[in-house]
Specification:
Layout: H1 6-22, E1 29-38, E2 43-51, E3 54-62, H2 65-77, E4 87-96, E5 111-119, E6 124-131, H3 134-166, H4 172-185, H5 192-203
Antiparallel strand pairs: 1-2, 2-3, 4-5, 5-6
Helix pairs in contact: 1-3, 2-3, 3-4
Length: 206
């Protein structure tokens, strides 16, 4: 990705924090075997949704493939990851990169999709994907955006729990470092309900 915008530099820093905190525990999403059927009033998408190598069928419908997939993924994960309920499309752009075409008539030019999401905190989040196939590019950019938000929420949970555990220890510098990381993460979106749920689960362990 070309981190050409300040928001994209911010997201790169967030990804670094996610890598640092979650490491190999990061969630990986993959939509494969995608099939699209265009009906008069909607697009119907069927795919296999894989999360960390565990796969299950996913059926989605909406006003186009991007709407269908994004809505279906947010609905699928909304109960587990509360931040997905508070995110919306801000912009969606398609650009054909004709300079990268090989054929004389340039019909083989790859396309780049830019998806911009906006959280209820006003933060704009940018995601890009490029492919020779328009459908593949849309699938990739939607997949990446939801995966990023899921990993953000997982990192918020992990950091908050670590900070709480450190409150009764003399490890002030580590607690301060983790608090600074958490302060950056909560700029991404609205994690208030997520933190409330962690507090409730801490007070009411199963």
């Amino acid at each position: 990705m070309d981190y050409s915008l300040p928001e994209e530099h911010f997201q790169k820093q967030i990804k670094n924090i996610i890598d640092d905190v979650l490491g190999e525990q990061k969630t990986t999403l993959l939509l494969r075997d995608v099939r699209v059927k265009e009906e008069p009033a909607k697009s119907v998408v069927e795919a296999m949704l894989c999360r960390d190598e565990m796969c299950a069928p996913l059926t989605a419908s909406g006003e186009g493939i991007a709407d269908a997939l994004f809505t279906a993924l947010c609905t699928h994960f909304a109960e587990e990851f509360l931040c997905l309920e508070k995110i919306a499309f801000e912009d969606f752009n398609l650009k054909a990169k004709f300079k990268d075409a090989k054929k004389p008539h340039r019909s083989d030019a790859p396309v780049e999709i830019t998806l911009v999401l906006r959280s209820t905190t006003g933060r704009r989040l940018y995601f890009r994907a490029q492919s020779k196939s328009l459908i593949t590019a849309v699938v990739k950019v939607v997949q990446e955006s939801v995966q990023f938000l899921i990993n953000c929420e997982q990192t918020v949970c992990e950091l908050y729990s670590h900070i709480e555990d450190l409150c009764s220890t003399p490890r002030y510098r580590l607690r301060e470092a983790l608090t600074l990381q958490l302060a950056e993460l909560v700029k991404v979106g609205d994690f208030e309900q997520t933190i409330k749920r962690i507090k409730w689960q801490t007070k009411n362990p199963r």
